[in-house]
Amino acid sequence: MRAAVLHETGQDKLEVLDDIEAVGFGPGKVKIRVRATGLCHSDLSAMSGVLPQPAPFIPGHEGAGEIIDVGDGVTGMRAGDRVLLCWLPACGSCAACKRGQTQLCLAGFMNAGTPNFKRSGSGAAPSDVFGFAGTGTFAEEMVVEAGCAVPIPDDVPFDIAALIGCGVTTGLGAAINTADVAAGSSVAVIGCGGVGISAIQGARLKGAAEIVAVDPVESRREAALSFGATEAVAPDALADAKQRITAGEGFDYVFEVVGKSATARTAYETTRRGGTLCVVGAGAMDDFLQLNMFELFFDEKRILPSMYGGGDMLTSYERAIALWRAGRIDLAGLITHRVRLTEINDALAQMRTGEALRTCIEI
């Protein structure tokens, strides 16, 4: 089977191979034929080493496809069912799940350390290949825990379902679940890729009066306006927007969707006293955000990290589908580029330059 593989962490290109096999099928597992997958910035972060992931590995975690086979003990699914991939499945029994914080369940992370692919060609001995975040959707087929496969209605296209599996759920949830944006409030979103645009749509749904999109790429700023931003500025114009819109006080809510301490610090300074900074971007373990103890106390700003949209994944998926059906959110518009798996390195280039909001890879 065909898959795109990163051989060593730090390489900037993937190699598309034809000698990869999905392994590990058995009780409690499902085998999936991937039909569409989105390229998320987290895939680039794993390739560069910002996010920890054993190599060699197959990137991709935002996907959808069809069930090929189900293992013993799997109920509620059968061959032919259409599913989206959940890279952070809830076990239902850990302390986090019992508290209702299923997005903090660590069971899914345990899968990332177990190879679910194998390379068997080239006359060499078979070698293990990992799937990013325990999935690895840049492959024609994959084997995952049954909880990673979430059935979707027949009217939801695979490309739309794939986006709901990560970027859309993360961005919408940050605004709706984590920050719980108040109607009539002012919002700034720093970083306007697929997740940032989804946060903008979430803030609009919640009734924010002012939504300022901040991004260095002009095409992304222009796109943000069509998704609900009331204004779009380059990073060097953010201070002026803060002065004009909030009389210098700062925004009620600021979403940091880049994953860097520098932009998180800017976001903190752009948030009003008593306001909310919502950290959505996934950053590196050695990149530290510095706050002094006086400002932390005196400004009383809430700093809220948002993991996978800060809510129950299954509920969030259902909500996104309902909003999409009703025309309240635009998901098709997020897909600005489409490529085949053999063109995956073109997609990586589009992501790195900021040209794409989301690239759909058709498997």
Structure in words:
This protein is α/β, with parallel strands linked by helices and 363 residues long. It is 29% helix and 26% strand. It has helices at 41-48, 95-98, 107-111, 158-164, 167-178, 194-205, 218-226, 238-246, 261-270, 293-299, 313-325, 344-353, and strands spanning 3-5, 15-17, 20-22, 29-38, 57-58, 62-70, 82-85, 117-119, 127-131, 141-145, 149-151, 186-190, 210-214, 231-233, 251-256, 271-279, 302-305, 335-340, 358-362. The strands form four sheets. Strands 4, 6, 7, 10, 11, 18 and 19 form a seven-stranded mixed beta sheet that branches. Helix 5 packs parallel to helix 6.
Comma- or semicolon-separated keywords:
12 helices, 363 residues, six-stranded parallel sheet, 29% helix, globular, alpha/beta
Largest sheet: 7 strands, mixed
Strand content: 25-35%
Radius of gyration using CA atoms only: 20 Å
Calculate the terminal CA-CA distance, rounded to whole Å: 11 Å
| Computed structural class | alpha/beta
Cα shape: globular
Secondary structure tally: strands: 19
Mean pLDDT across the residues is 96
Low-confidence stretches: none
Percent helix = 25-40%
Q: Give the number of helices.
A: 12
